[in-house]
Amino acid sequence: MKPNPELKIVVRFKEQHAAAHELRAQGLSKAAIGRKLGPHQATVRKLINAATAQELTAKTLHRTHLVDPCTGYLHRRWNEGIRNAAQLFREIRQLGHSGGELAVQRHLRRYRTHRGHMPAPGPKPPSVREVTAWITTHPDHLDGTDADKLATLQSRNQDLDRLTRHVRAFAVMLTHREDHRLDE
Predict the structure, then answer these.
(1) Domain extents in the chain
(2) Within 13 Å and on the Cβ side, how many CA atoms surround 80?
(3) Would you give the end-to-end CA distance of the chain in angstroms?
(4) What is the value of pTM for the model shown?
(5) Which of 124, 83, 81, 80 lies closest to 107 in space, CA to CA?
(6) Which of 59, 90, 60 is nearest to 73 (CA)?
(7) Per-residue pLDDT of the chain in tens (184 residues, 90 and over written 9)
(8) How many alpha carbons lie under 13 Å from residue 72 in its C-beta half-sphere?
């Protein structure tokens, strides 16, 4: 597994820090360093005052972002398989998110590139084949955990609950040869 590439801002801070300290060692003033390198004088002051580039990048990597209040929701939706930033933006906008779509795109980019705090994967949802087997198996022959999982799914989805009841009623009609009930 190859290591994650560094963020552009981290690389830029490291390069600027090294260049600023090299020019300072040559005797240049902060204003001269700013003119030579290009950043604002306040940035040059931060570069010179920081003993290491790590001091600068630690603050950058841990600052708060507009989407921070929504990260729990975004993690959950990501784990549910929703990867579209525009869709997730619309969803959190309805929940009161005041930032823009670009902030959501930047946040999701961390997940896509495996940088930052990746959401912990949720439990694997059951496959269609598993659910089908639970529905078509006689309730008395279902394993206890499978019965619990099916009951949870039925409580969350009315259509699945209705389907399960119809399939089981049809199975009773077939096994008891109650063809007179087919019109029901």
Answers:
(1) 8-62, 68-112, 128-181
(2) 9
(3) 59
(4) 0.36
(5) 83
(6) 90
(7) 344 456 677 788 788 889 999 999 999 888 898 888 888 888 889 888 888 877 776 655 555 567 778 888 888 888 778 889 899 999 999 988 888 888 888 888 877 766 555 556 566 678 889 889 999 888 888 888 899 989 988 898 899 899 999 888 888 888 877 777 667 6
(8) 2
